[in-house]
Amino acid sequence: MYRFGSIPHLCFGLLLALLTFTGADAQEITWEERDYNPKAAEGDLALPMPCGGSYVFRRVSVESTGYLDDRRVRVGLRQENVAYKEDPRFEHIAGSFSDPGESSERYYYIGKYELTRLQYAALQNECSKPSTALRLPVTELSWFDAVNAGRIYTEWLMQNASDVLPKQGSASAFVRLPTEIEWEFAARGGLSVDEADFSGRVFPMPDGQLSEYVWFQGSESAAGKLRPIGLLKPNPLGLYDILGNASEITFDLFHLNRRGRLHGQAGGFVSKGGDIATSQGEMRSALRNENQFFDTRTGEALKVANMGARFVLSVPVVVSADRLQAIQSEWKALPAPDLESDSSSAQREALARLSNVTQRTDDQIVKQQLEQAILQLESARTIQNDIRNRAIRALLQSGAIIGNKVKTDPVLIARTEIVLQEMNKNLARAQELFAQAESAGDAARAQSARAVVAKIQSEMESRERRIVTLRSDSQTTVASYSDLVYSVSSDYPLTLIAPQLEALVVDYREKGFGYLVPFAQLFVGHVEELRSNDEIEREKWSQELRKIGGNDDQ
Questions:
Q1: What is the pTM of this model?
Q2: CA torsion 238→241→244→245, rounded to 10°?
């Protein structure tokens, strides 16, 4: 038996190289951008990997009013045969990261593409030469393999690229599998789509059919074969193959759906997205399957064909003492009654009395019952406050939309009047032609001209009625806007309105509705004015709304 000390120096060097790398020499390998990011785009976050590679993430924004604020989203899909696992339900999501000084937006990062065979090999310290075959998504992974790959990648980043690894405070980001709600929120398009599109069967596909975005079962699509990443079109967040190709492992355990919420029993792990064996008709964002952790036939961790992974970049929740203090402060405020509510003082006093009695009693049964009562009251108030905040945001949206209509109504009226003026000129010319034809005794021309005159007169009458209707609608719009300003001003203090406005601005910008932002901001400005001077100034407000964006029609 040879010992290391008896191996010649040259042979030992070769042995060390073999132990260190499997495949081509890492020094000879070069990853081109097409090997890890074939569809480069603005906003990509590319982090380095072993073997000179990279993995690309996309940012997923979630509007926020604080560390304990989250977004309530409707996931799932109403479909009777799979309702036991996919019936619609509400979940909540929040981002991990926030930019310094920015409290209205939090975000997380999710992989732009599925993890490829090339990237997975690099994480296993196998530096293979890039090829088309290695740009296929890695499959035949167990849940433990996928989780461990995130661990390996995180440790490599911290040890070799800590300077480019995103941080929150002093805490470095780490790589992991997405939760089910993180995956589905991103797959549906996040904030970049409206509520109707978000709740759809699949994300919006404005440039074509499903086959242009998704690899599914059938000769017109995948034809039973996995495909290299990034060949088709992305979803609204710039994510490729989020549906189809390989299904994707999530971090979460599977629960049945109990009509509106998940059932208490935890099972195997959840996979999402469907794969090349999923038919076109069955492809959907809500698709979720339970997978066993272990194979009863082999006694080993189960590895499923056509199942791969997509990473998420995240950070811990409590990243500093200051963050903890802010979280604790927000937590205490969650059940707080509105400061300007008529019942606010009474609610606070009642809770204080209950708490005082609870602390003074020696009867443990009474103490437990009182503590439970206080907990229920605080939970109910927290839910009520969440509903209130969603109502405020909906009112601000309405104010922005109606305010935009206050601006555009006069523009539409003016355009209709211009059309009417042109029609009046055409009528005069037609009448002149009719008179000339009659004078010349040309009955055919006269009849034709008379028909033109009648048609123009009919269209003009229609336009005139349209202008009357538009003017009436415009007056109604101005009145509705003023009534909404009055209602919001009467019902909600600015301390509650301001954070919802900031969150709405993030929502609008992500959806491409940036033109509505100044209308929402001005609406809140009018609410503030009304609270200050108690005067409804319809004409002034209308003029200010019509000045937004100059004379451009939105």
A1: 0.82
A2: 180
